[in-house]
Design brief:
Elements: H1 2-10, H2 13-23, H3 32-39, H4 44-69, H5 80-97, H6 105-121, H7 125-139, H8 150-175, E1 185-186, E2 189-193, H9 195-214, E3 220-223, E4 230-232, H10 234-256, E5 266-272, E6 276-283, H11 328-338, E7 342-348, E8 352-360
Parallel strand pairs: 3-5
Antiparallel strand pairs: 1-2, 2-4, 5-6, 6-8, 7-8
Helix pairs in contact: 2-4, 4-5, 4-6, 4-8, 5-6, 5-7, 6-8, 8-11, 9-10, 10-11
């Protein structure tokens, strides 16, 4: 009740009732293939149709998340950082609902500018929610085991999966307005993406972070056909490979730091199957104890030190690296699952870890709608 009261203090009763109404409506999922086929002809008519779809779809998705943010267990809904995120969602819902019906190209252009602003408003949702969870962890009794916080894990999975979908839909629509799209690109989708090339770029980014932190970085060897391409979203793949390689580099670096032996390279293997493209990231960084494996996909566990500052200004920049608040792996798995793939981690304690990133190459799977 307290949360409802707080929401009503800054937002009108009518708005809260409308959020409840829209939160009960059915969401409509789209597939990578549909986004690609639809976006291949960004005519004014198609852009108008796309804007009309988003005008109805985005409020439903945003309302669902706003409602969930009100009813989180263990008092998480009342944490200052979570209240801030909820306010962003309610502001965005109000912006969308107060925008009149989209009837022509002028309306469509104005709508595009508005959803662009909504996307920027939500840039820091991930670190802000992480801060909320951190505020919760400080307050809960030590005897509560993280596995007992299953409800929170499930909520965050749904919440971040929904966020990936919302940002994909907005980003795709906005990018279709680009008068000079890069070759073979339809919005965010690259129709001839080379996974080997993306893996190389992501590895270089991860190594530069490793250099910054440790003063050196193990090599990364990539095996696979550089000419092999398939349609996918390069930014999604970059994020996932970057996270896996960064974890491997850190494990190898820390294992060999005080040793006379040369740090062994991290290996990336790209395999193109009929159904899946699989990317394996292997390291000899000592592995993860079997008891620790269930924790690596939770949002309440990290092996790195926590970089979040209670007083940091998270309202400005988009946070790129996710090391330290334990979100890299669970969010990477959601990105993989968003288009029908998956992420699995297999570890040999005392030796190393293999991460298998499966990407569906058919592009037919519907968005998983939480």
């Amino acid at each position: 009740m307290a949360v409802k009261k707080q929401a009503c203090e800054s937002f009108s009763r009518a708005l809260i009732e409308e959020v409840q109404k829209w939160g009960c409506m059915k969401q409509t999922g789209v597939s990578l293939r549909y986004m690609m086929e639809f976006g291949s002809k960004p005519t004014p008519r198609n852009l108008l149709f796309s804007a009309q779809f988003l005008h109805k779809e985005l409020p439903i998705r945003i309302a669902r998340r706003a409602l969930e943010l009100e009813t989180l267990p263990y008092g998480l809904s009342l944490k200052p950082a979570v209240l801030k995120v909820r306010d962003w969602y309610l502001d965005s819902f109000r912006d969308l609902r107060s925008f009149p019906d989209i009837k022509d190209s002028n309306d469509e252009r104005e709508f595009t500018q508005m959803i662009k602003a909504i996307k920027v408003r939500h840039n820091n949702v991930v670190p802000m929610m992480a801060l909320g969870v951190q505020q919760l962890k400080k307050g809960i009794a030590q005897k509560i085991v993280y596995e007992d916080l299953d409800e929170i894990h499930q909520f965050l999975d749904r919440f971040y999966m929904s966020r990936i979908g919302i940002r994909m839909l907005i980003g795709q629509h906005v990018e279709l307005h680009n008068p000079n799209p890069p070759p073979h690109c339809i919005g965010y989708i690259h129709t001839k993406m080379s996974p080997v090339e993306v893996a190389r770029n992501a590895s270089e980014d991860a190594r530069s972070i490793c250099f910054r932190e440790y003063g050196c970085a193990p090599d990364v060897n990539i095996y696979g056909d550089p000419d092999f391409t398939f349609p996918y979203v390069p930014t999604h793949l970059h994020l996932m490979v970057f996270e896996l390689v960064k974890n491997s580099l850190r494990a190898v670096q820390e294992r060999f730091m005080d040793s006379d032996k040369v740090a062994l390279p991290v290996r990336i293997i790209v395999a193109d199957g009929i159904e899946d493209v699989t990317i394996k990231v292997s390291d000899e960084g000592g592995g993860i104890p079997r008891s620790g494996l269930p924790k690596i996909f939770t949002y309440l566990y990290s092996t790195a030190k926590n970089p979040l500052d209670e007083h940091a200004d998270l309202g400005v920049a988009d946070t790129v690296t996710m090391a330290g608040y334990g979100y890299g792996l669970p969010i990477s798995r959601l990105y993989a699952r968003y288009f029908g793939g998956d992420l699995q981690i297999i570890s040999m304690e005392g030796y190393g870890t293999d991460a298998y990133l499966h990407l569906s190459r058919l592009g037919d799977s519907q968005e998983p709608l939480p």
